[in-house]
């Protein structure tokens, strides 16, 4: 038996459920239940907040998970990744107020930057040789410059319309992300075999869509 953790409700949920179904795995999902069992594959599905998924898989509370690389890398467990899934593609970018001058990433030296991704951002800034003050906030990062909390932000961008609406301009791509399948490090031989069956089906689903 394998336990797979997926996001309960959010941008990963629909595509995660669709992928499992396209793998030929049947289950009944209800918005009220936090757990369901597949009827034709030894799989239990747990519905969790995406931020909790890497930790649960690292600890073996769940055997598998589907999560964004952004959340996985920020949590510090990039080595749990076993398969890129090709959906929920997005990027983490730096943005500054449109009215402010910006020449290069060096312009951020000594500035205050608001983000929900302090680990990914601090690694990027270190690589660029830039020192800045990071302010970790968990949501509504885009309003930080207009309320005087920071001179720049680093947040998830897909279309850019949220940035535009807050008077911000995207200036650097810090990290590119997509949904990935992750697995706990200590699967039994039987679980590892089930994982291989699952990966084989996932790869076939992706190939069929090309
Ligand atoms: P939760 O309540 O589970 O913590 P959340 O609000 O943190 O959810 P969502 O906004 O649902 O997270 O995003 C989940 C993941 O989907 C992100 O971590 C990212 O990998 C991806 N994602 C976020 N925004 C977009 C987007 N605009 N387009 C595509 N993928 C995105
Ligand atoms: Zn989250």
Automatic annotation (TrEMBL):
Enzyme Commission code: 2.4.2.17
Domain of life: Bacteria
Subcellular location: Cytoplasm
Biological or metabolic pathway of the protein: Amino-acid biosynthesis; L-histidine biosynthesis; L-histidine from 5-phospho-alpha-D-ribose 1-diphosphate: step 1/9
Gene Ontology molecular function, alphabetical: glycosyltransferase activity
Annotated catalysed reactions: 1-(5-phospho-beta-D-ribosyl)-ATP + diphosphate = 5-phospho-alpha-D-ribose 1-diphosphate + ATP
Regulation: Feedback inhibited by histidine.
Key words of the record: Amino-acid biosynthesis, ATP-binding, Cytoplasm, Glycosyltransferase, Histidine biosynthesis, Magnesium, Metal-binding, Nucleotide-binding, Transferase
Region forming the signal peptide: none
Main localization of the protein described in the UniProt heading: cytoplasm
The ATP phosphoribosyltransferase catalytic domain, residue ranges: 49-203
Cofactor field: Mg(2+)
Positions of transmembrane segments: none
Similarity-based family: Belongs to the ATP phosphoribosyltransferase family. Long subfamily.
Functional note: Catalyzes the condensation of ATP and 5-phosphoribose 1-diphosphate to form N'-(5'-phosphoribosyl)-ATP (PR-ATP). Has a crucial role in the pathway because the rate of histidine biosynthesis seems to be controlled primarily by regulation of HisG enzymatic activity.
Protein name in UniProt: ATP phosphoribosyltransferase
Name of encoding gene: hisG
Segment of the intact protein contained: 1 to 210 of 283
